[in-house]
Write a structure and sequence with these properties.
- Helix content is about 40%, strand content about 15%.
- The chain has 12 helices and 10 strands.
- The chain has an 8-stranded parallel barrel, surrounded by 5 helices. A two-stranded antiparallel ribbon has the order 1-2.
- About 40% of the residues are buried.
Length: about 300
């Protein structure tokens, strides 16, 4: 496993990170413990959760695992605050997350999304206070546009507040907007890029087609709002190209799609979720793959 710097914090994180969204929501505590045990045993050190995952259930399960296994000092623990991001909301959320996680401090506390209805500096100053109180070693953001992160870094520098050390965007063969501004900004400012959804919520596994509606038991069936991101002409073109490259190389579509993200310049860590330890295997397989430049270029064709 490769380990990379988490911004300017001095901490490092594994190139593969564990997304804990399934814990307490899609799988029970015992199954979640098995996934976390396997992840840590295989070298994953970044564990990313959020108060929004299962209305706090994910944090609770992760906290019980940390207490049961005594593994707090072996992982980089990250969580997120969501909702209406007033200063009061951010601070009370941070406290509640610490209680559920059964820790005194997380390594990374992130804004889950940008909130346009709260003054920007109110959010940033509250994040600084989270660090000042010792509740988090570092702060970051998720789902921020390049200009939002740039403005945050500027205001934090002006006021002497704790800086954004990471950003967590959606990134895969279909969703590549971050290449325009966000990735260059993060490279210039030494901000870690922790991406999620390398398989496009399952779209890039090849199990969907433009002629067939997704089943109710699939992710796109349960969350139809995600369909507009991928179920579009460009998405289908990317999928068919991926299918063709898979046929030409003999490499499974999920392995190719995930390996492409894992080997993209500027990506610090790629979050993967799992419902069983076996689900992590395709991520480890992709991480160990070597993609020739010609194949990476062919996969990126649109």
């Amino acid at each position: 496993m490769e380990y990379r710097p988490l911004g300017r914090t001095g901490m490092t994180v594994s190139a593969l990170g564990l997304g804990c969204v399934t814990f307490g929501r899609e799988i029970d505590e015992a199954a979640s413990f098995a996934v976390m045990d396997e992840a840590l045993a295989r070298g994953i050190t970044l564990f990313d959760t959020a108060e929004a995952y299962g209305a706090g259930a994910s944090e609770t399960v992760v906290g019980r695992w940390l207490r049961a296994r005594g593994t707090r000092d072996r992982i980089v623990l990250a969580t997120k605050v969501s909702g209406h991001l007033t200063a009061e909301r951010i601070l009370t959320s941070a406290e509640a997350s610490l209680r559920r996680l059964q820790v005194d401090q997380v390594d990374l506390f992130q804004l889950h999304r940008f909130d346009p209805d709260v003054p920007f500096n109110e959010m940033l100053e509250a994040l600084h206070e989270v660090v000042e109180r010792g509740w988090a070693r570092a702060i970051g953001c998720s789902n921020f546009a390049g200009w939002q992160l740039a403005k945050a870094l500027w205001q934090q520098d002006v006021h002497g507040w704790a800086r954004m050390e990471s950003v967590q965007p959606n990134y895969n063969l279909v969703e590549r907007d971050i290449e325009l501004e966000l990735l260059p900004l993060c490279a210039d400012q030494e901000v870690a890029v922790i991406t999620y959804s390398p398989l496009g919520a399952g779209f890039l596994t090849g199990k969907y087609s433009p002629d067939t509606a997704p089943g109710e038991d699939t992710r796109f069936g349960r969350l139809p709002g995600h369909q507009s991101i991928y179920f579009k002409p460009m998405g289908w073109r990317v999928l068919e190209n991926l299918r063709a490259q898979s046929a030409a190389t003999g490499i499974a579509m999920p392995h190719l799609a995930m390996a492409w993200v894992l080997h993209q310049p500027g990506v610090t860590s790629v979050l993967v979720g799992a419902r069983t330890p076996a689900h992590l295997e395709q991520a480890f397989t992709a991480q160990a793959m070597h993609l020739e430049p010609e194949l990476r270029e062919a996969l990126a064709a649109r």
